[in-house]
Amino acid sequence: MRFWFGAAIAVLIAVVAAATLKNEYYFFAGYTVLTYVILATAWNILGGYAGYVNFGTPAFFGLGAYTAAVLFKATAAPLALQILAAAAMSGLLGFAAGLLTLRLRGIFFAIATIALVVIMETLFINWRYAGGATGLQLLRPAPLAPFTSYITMLFVLMVALAVASVAVARYIETSWIGRGLRAIRDSEEAAECSGVPTLKLKVFACTVSGALMGAAGAPMPMYLSFIEPASTFNLNYAIGALASPMIGGTAHYLGPVIGAILLSSIQQIVTVTISDEINVLVVGVMLVVFVVAAPDGILGLLRKMRWKSPS
Length: 311
What we know:
With 311 residues, the chain is mainly alpha-helical. It is 75% helix and 1% strand. The chain contains 15 helices and two strands. It has a two-stranded antiparallel sheet with strand order 1-2. Helix 2 packs antiparallel against helix 13, helix 6 crosses helix 7 and helix 12 runs parallel beside helix 14.
């Protein structure tokens, strides 16, 4: 009940902000932060709960973005349909990739996911209808009522997508699926001996994770009015999606949200005040600090502080 109350408050605040704030930069920055909230939450379903470190985030995100862009170019489909199609395509990619790669473990699985990014980028570089290496220019349609700006509409939409992705992660975490994934993370051999359908759960997690990442990528072509392979399949998406749960905590569905908001907000401030080139340095420094000082993330640190406090 508290979760849904908090979710309703978040959406309400987003709607009020869209109606009152006049400076669109806040919505540009908020869109970026919310994108990483979704990506981090999606990454944590496979990487945090099951313990399979996935560097393939740009492949799913990029496929979602290109699915939306190509669908809009071909049929002028509305944004809602673009998001659904992007989630379906990236979910199918997650299902196929899961069947092929999830029998691998450790560094071998991580390398396979990086290869997936390279394969997807190469495909779209050589697809002329999607713009090839030079990219594709898109013209935004008029925003839907009651919005007067397309950027504010996208911001509110991303808030709704972020709430939906966190709700999915919360359901998985608290269900038998989450218990099975945690058993896989602790000891896959023991989980199999206990009757846990390990492969089915891993493929399910990879499919859901991919679908959410694709949904996060779908609004991006309209956000930028442009799409091209190099930036769309950028490995920075993988770094941000991985770093956020590590900073916030992988054991709870709120960990990726806290980590993504903290990390992305600092990156936005650094971009405006210093330089965009410092972003990766910020991620590296924060990762080192939290791995050394708080290996269980912010939530783990708070939990330890609560246990140590006198009753």
